What does this fold into?
Amino acid sequence: MLSYRHAFHAGNYADVMKHVVLTALLRYMTRKDSPLCFVDTHAGAGGYDLQSDYALKNEESNLGIGKLWYVKDSPEPIAAYLELIRQFNDGDQLLRYPGSPWIGAQLLRAQDRLMLCELHGSDYPLLQQTFKRDRRVHCFAEDGYRFSKGLLPPAERRGLILIDPSYELDGEYETVMATLVALHRRFSTGIYAVWYPILDDRRTALLRQCVDKAAIRDVLNLELTIADREIHPGMYGCGMIVVNPPWTLREEMKLALPWLASALGQCNSSGFRIEQWVAE
Ligand SMILES: C[S@@+](CC[C@H](N)C(=O)[O-])C[C@H]1O[C@@H](n2cnc3c(N)ncnc32)[C@H](O)[C@@H]1O
It folds into this structure.
């Protein structure tokens, strides 16, 4: 039984970082006309009401998108992301926050496809409802770890696979990495983006070890730390592992991540990291 609901966390700093990276990846991939496939293994509900009881419980978006909403001047990768959030709100007030499927649908073209897996019995119908008129979008009430294997390689032979789980189960870090390896074996030229929370050094080291052991080349690691780990007992930052990153991503993140660390940082030790874990 899954208890995690993304509606409690929508628009927090982790969503901001993840969606800035997602926007940069899809903007790059849509420069070429040839079709592509976006697979979101853990799609969530597709979009969130920031006035809902869920969102208001901890008001996490206040420390995320809420801090950026009125920003006028920001580096290009951030400005492109903020433009999408403004389109989703359709007005001057920040009332809603899009999920990764909506961001994908907004950036992709008529020739592209979106394959979205969501297992939660309440979020899946919301996801389906959001995209019921969009023929490019296919929603599956399936386990994204298992089901995504059957989606690869995509017919388009170009694809982005986002793996963005809730990490609520024991051993989920291992499952994430085993899935990445299995998907990469089926489709080695795909771009993969894996999100993870930064809770302690041990778990990040585990991800690194798995990447080192796997026969996967060209792995970029991005991290953003926001809160003071001595004071903050839980997540104090988040990271992404990007396999086969576009050549533009590193330079874009050199602009975006320091800016985000400064705009969203809750302590003096907020920071970022951009590290090539495995060479091309
Ligand atoms: C972090 S949220 C996804 C957020 C979304 N990717 C976004 O950026 O807007 C993780 C989602 O995965 C769902 N989930 C958990 N385990 C799953 C599984 N094995 N397969 C598919 N979905 C799963 C949860 O219900 C939750 O909605």
Summary: DSSP finds ten helices and ten strands in the chain. The mean pLDDT is 95.
